[in-house]
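Hi support team,

I'm filing this because I wasn't sure whether my run with pyridoxal-5'-phosphate finished correctly. The job status page said complete, but I'd like someone to confirm that the output block is well-formed before I use it downstream. Pasting the exact inputs I used:
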Amino acid sequence: MALAKITRRNLDLDTALAEAERRYLAANPKSIARLERAKASMPGGNTRSVLHYAPCPLTMARGQGCRLWSLDGDEYIDFLCEYTAGLYGHSNPAIVAATKRALDDGVMLGAPNVYEARLAEALCARFPSLERVRFCNSGSEADLMALGLARAVTGRDRVLAFEAAYHGGFLMFAHGGSPLNVPIPMVIARYNDTDGTRALIGEHAHDLAAVIVEPMQGAGGCIPAERGFLDMLRAETARHGILLVFDEVITSRLSPGGLQAAWGVIPDLTTLGKYLGGGSSFGAFGGRADLMDRFDPASPDCLYHSGTFNNDVLTMAAGAAGLTEVLTPAALAALNARGERLRAALDGLFDAAGLGVATTGLGSLMAIHFRPGPIGAPADLEGEDPRLKQLFHLAMLARGIYLSPRGMVALSLPMGEAETDALLAAVGAFVEDYGPLLPRAEA
Ligand SMILES: Cc1ncc(COP(=O)(O)O)c(C=O)c1O
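And here is everything the job wrote out:
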């Protein structure tokens, strides 16, 4: 995308934002026209809230490798990475080949297929807590099923979750929760608050079926759990007969066996999703055999778990190919090491400019926060000016960097040094252009 050099040094934040919006709208007329037309048949022209951003989301026409092309014909490096589901990049050849083979053999078989156990075996081999696994269609569904199972087997009602946690569209706990959340009675604790959470678990122990936690809060800002916090959760839930559920929908990519393997904290149940379906709709939940075997349809008091697309042929074939042919432990280690290097370089860039801009994250997942660190809990993000996030987002798009409006960056396998260098250059230019508007490092 051609960029006219302009000097922004004397702008205030509102003027800078208004100018960035004007330039963005002028550069993307086809995306705007598509959105306007979609508004007639879809509320706000949208069917997925997270993809909306002001002044108008880009429409993407196609993707290849780690690149995307918008309807207006501009090329972007894809650091949004489909909110981590795009780990394989676009059109990975092994996954495309497996999908085509499956498509040729018919996809509506109405029976167990040859792919599902292949994927299940590969998952159980990788994730230490998975003795058995079942499939569904999304991470949201996986979390609902895990909590439903916990409530059924314990005969208890409540679930403890954490402020700012996102466990899918029916279990959202940012900003006081959503009116669309499922009516499970919840206890909400503070993430990384070891003593406070221990006390809450003790207080509600008789009534708690499960504690559900992301080992690193993803949507909440890429904030990793402290090791002692997870150890406490493991010990206290075991002591009180409460099931510990790790939502590894996002964090599963941080080591071959997820963060549970990396940190050696093994939950009773785990939920998965995103890239593990090879690019198609996917969710999975699994864990201890004695719990999961309640779904064995041959047992007299089995729990019934249905879903037309639970074993969708395309997802099962693509997921199995991805996990067995593409995502080797070495490939994943290289991806996460690249992410660590990128985050360190971003920190170096902000530090050198004397800015109070912090990064969080682990491995191939990170977030940029326009406020000084350290950030160890969601409460530490309070007071961040949302206008800076928006300005940053628009500035990155103007330089061909596609990333989430919340400042999250995810790497995909096809990315190399050239792509991470391009991100660093774009961030460097942003700092150059808007430095005076950004928070200063605390003395
Ligand atoms: C931690 C976590 N759990 C669950 C979900 C829900 O997954 P899905 O979007 O597939 O329903 C997400 C989605 O971003 C997530 O980040």
